[in-house]
Amino acid sequence: MVKDFLPQVLSPSTRRLADGVPSAPPGTIFALADAGGYAVPLRKFTLHFGRGRDDVHVPIGVNDPSVSRLHGVLSCDGSEWWIRNTGRLPIEIPGAPMLLSGHEALISPGYTPMLIASRRRPSHLLEIHVVGSGPTDSSEDPHVETRPPDVYDLSLVERMVVTALAQRYLRQEPHPQPVSWRQVADDLNRLPDGRTWTPKSAEHKVGGVRERLASGRDPIPGILREEVGEPVGNVLNHNLIQALLRTATLIPEDLALLGDEI
User: Fold this and answer.
1) 90 and 97 in contact (C-beta within 8 Å)?
2) How far, in Å, are 4, 108, 173, 190 from residue 184 at the CA level?
3) What pLDDT digit, counting tens, does each position of 137-159 carry?
4) Is the dihedral of CA 212, 218, 222, 227 positive or negative?
5) Is the distance from CB of 185 to CB of 198 less than 8 angstroms?
6) Full-prediction pTM beyond 0.85?
7) 177-203 burial: b if 16+ Cβ within 10 Å, else e
8) What is the DSSP secondary structure assignment for residue 256, as one 8-state letter?
9) From CA 208, how far away is CA 132, in angstroms rounded?
10) Other beta carbons within 10 Å of 147
11) DSSP-assigned beta bridge partners for residue 113
12) What phi, psi does 151 have (nearest 5°)?
């Protein structure tokens, strides 16, 4: 199968890699941006991406001079894929430290969105999908039913409180932060369910959620005080909200619990 799958160009009309990739051998990497992409089976190979359309495999940010002509490379030693930032702007990878210029990181199997954030323009998305060894890592059938994400369990009351805390994120406000405990209590007290909330009771409820989700089958890191340094500030709740958004445990439709029209 590896011999049958050759390195190949992906046209700009290729569907998003988040929706799946065609059948390919384990270890095959798919890389896609707005201007097109490239796919390579597991072998020694160096794949280039950046603004220099004629000199890279994956053009990205072709009209944005803040993106480097060669902004990064995806390289394979024959067993695993790595990304290295050779540009000036950092590359943002969800759930991982920002990849600064000159730094590299291992790419895990599965789908990984990466962003090159330009200061005065929208961020540029580089989609990466490395085919794993399991049968569900790739599919050539676009009509196969979407697999639901692994969400965290929240009771209705917990969901209401966390939604109030995370409302700025769910409304996609720029540079969101958790709202104050006073605002959480005020928003919940406006609901016609007869409950009475104080800033302390709201904080206690979310603290219980953090304690529970910091352990178990798929613990969320960075949501307990002993895991982060001082000053703590909003870090614990920010990390909690980010994890709940990433797994679609919290979705914008949850704002209806606060009486918002969706």
Assistant:
1) no
2) 57, 37, 17, 10
3) 444 444 444 444 467 899 999 99
4) positive
5) yes
6) no
7) ebbebebbbebbeeeeeeeebeeeebb
8) G
9) 36
10) 9
11) 127
12) -95, 160
Strands (E), 186-254: none
Handedness of CA 97, 100, 104, 106 (dihedral sign): positive
- Four-residue CA torsion sign, 186, 188, 194, 199: negative
Query: Which of the two residues, 88 and 207, has the higher pLDDT score?
Result: 207
What residues have CB less than 8 Å from 106, skipping those under 6 apart?
Answer: 80, 81, 82
- For 61-132, list the strands marked E by DSSP: 72-77, 81-85, 91-92, 104-106, 110-116, 124-130
For the stretch 173-210, pLDDT in tens is: 878 899 999 999 999 999 998 899 999 999 999 999 99
Short-list 139, 191, 142, CA closest to 163: 191
Model confidence at 119: pLDDT above 70: no
Mean pLDDT, the chain, as a whole number?
A: 88
Residue type, 219: P
Q: Which residues lie below 8 Å from residue 53, measured CB to CB, with a gap of 6+?
A: 35, 59, 62
Beta bridge mates, 126:
114
Q: Is 237 left (phi over 0), alpha (psi -120 to 50) or beta?
A: alpha
Short-list 163, 159, 134, 158, CA closest to 147: 134
Quick one: tokens of 17? 């890699």
Asked if residues 197 and 185 have their Cβ atoms less than 8 Å apart, the reply is yes
Distance CA 190, CA 178 (A): 19
Q: Between the CA atoms of 191, 195, 196 and 201, what dihedral angle is there, to the nearest 10 degrees? A: -110
Q: Which amino acid is at 179?
A: V
